[in-house]
Write a structure and sequence with these properties.
The protein is an alpha+beta fold. It has one domain. 29% of the residues lie in helices and 14% in strands. A hairpin with a 5-residue loop joins strand 4 and strand 5. It binds iron/sulfur cluster (2 copies).
């Protein structure tokens, strides 16, 4: 899929989020890095359109595969390959190469009907327990702000906007846990 997000923009986003994390301490110590190590079959990490450009697809710590957007639950504007990865070495990985999905969690973007971008605590079912969600732990303001800045940039791309809008449209706005 053609995206307007350039490789160097993704690289800048990776740099920004390299060391900005949900807590100032390693939240993985609270749960044994549950979001990395869950052995559920569906524990795959989708990449955003064009994010794969940052990788060679020969990384020895990742298993690569893709879905065809038209065969799965993606926005109508999406077609062709949507890459996803599985970690072979979790919870260890080259920190500076963690996919965006890993860096954003436990936050998710949400677009209101008026097109206003918010961040919410991840609202979906998970095959593991994330203490940050379960205990409603206050997330670092620096992390929240950085993730919001990144999503503000990302949704300028029509495909990514459509994805966030698509995911948001399924939600009951009154039940969401808004962070920003
Ligand atoms: S985001 Fe949640 S599940 Fe993942 S390591 Fe941190 S506390 Fe654990
Ligand atoms: S890439 Fe790193 S942070 Fe993401 S799931 Fe794998 S081990 Fe965890």
């Amino acid at each position: 899929m053609k995206t307007t997000i350039k490789k160097r923009t993704y690289q800048a986003i990776y740099r920004l989020l390299n060391y900005i994390t949900p807590l100032t301490t390693d939240c993985g110590a609270l749960c044994g890095a549950a979001c990395c190590t869950s052995e559920e079959e569906d524990m795959i990490i989708y990449l955003l359109p064009g994010e794969e450009k940052l990788f060679t697809r020969r990384e020895d710590w990742l298993i690569w595969d893709y879905d065809l957007a038209e065969d799965y639950d993606f926005p109508e504007s999406w077609f062709g390959k949507v890459y996803y990865v599985r970690c072979k070495t979790a919870p260890a990985c080259p920190r500076e190469m963690r996919p965006l999905q890993c860096r954003f969690f436990p936050l998710a973007p949400h677009l209101t009907e008026d097109g206003v971008l918010h961040l919410i605590r991840y609202p979906g079912d998970l095959p593991y327990v994330c203490p940050l969600l379960e205990k409603d732990v206050r997330l670092e303001p620096r992390f929240v702000k950085a993730v919001h800045t990144v999503w503000t940039h990302l949704i300028r791309d029509p495909l990514i906007y459509d994805l966030v809008e698509f995911d948001s449209s399924d939600r009951n706005e009154e039940e969401l846990d808004y962070v920003l």
